Amino acid sequence: MPRRAFLVGTAFLSLLAAPVSATGKTMNGTRLHQAAGQNDAAAITRLLAAGAEIEARDRNGATPLLVATHANAVEAARVLVQAGADVNAEDLIQDSPYLYAGARGHLEILKMTLAHGADLKSTNRFGGTALIPACERGHVETVRTLIEAGVDVDHVNNLAWTALLEAIILGDGGPRHQQIVDLLVRAGADVNLADGNGVTPLGHARAAGYDKIQRILVAAGAR
């Protein structure tokens, strides 16, 4: 191998092996972001003790806690939350640990955020609360948890849809979405609150042929 190529290769390997400080940047964010994504609670504890910035942002504007939430890295999230990480810190597309955990059904992390100051009125880039996408995606226990926490069941997003409408329009009409519709109705959701085109939840359920959901709605006074 020519000496120049050898020296360049050696220098490159040395850079790869060089240590990065607790607050130093990696290719995408900090060492803390990396540890969070890998659910490495021990590394997170060490990095925080060494002075790592708990609210540092990666190139997507995500904090280490949001990275942990993306990965459903429960132990990493627990360490970060207990260390004071902001559960409402939003990234560049308006996701926060609280909102993302709710939308994706990451129930353990969601409960942590609720216990540490989650903003129940915060909304995602579609103007929806954490409850609305949870209903769409069929996360029954997440929906139950958010309702019990006090999230507004009749909040209307930018599409003019409530959680009830979204559960019907974007759901599959199966057992999970039937349970979710029942939970929303029992929580006092307005069964006649129509979408932007004036179509009610019952109208959408009829159009989709969701018989069980229709029965739940009619029993609750839907028209």
From TrEMBL:
SUPFAM superfamilies according to UniProt? Ankyrin repeat
Keywords tagged on the record = ANK repeat, Repeat, Signal
Give one Pfam family: Ank_2
Organism superkingdom = Bacteria
Where are the annotated ANK repeats, by residue?
27-59, 60-92, 93-125, 126-158
Q: Which N-terminal residues, if any, form the signal peptide?
A: 1-22
Name of this chain's protein: Ankyrin repeat domain-containing protein
Which species does this protein come from?
Paracoccus broussonetiae
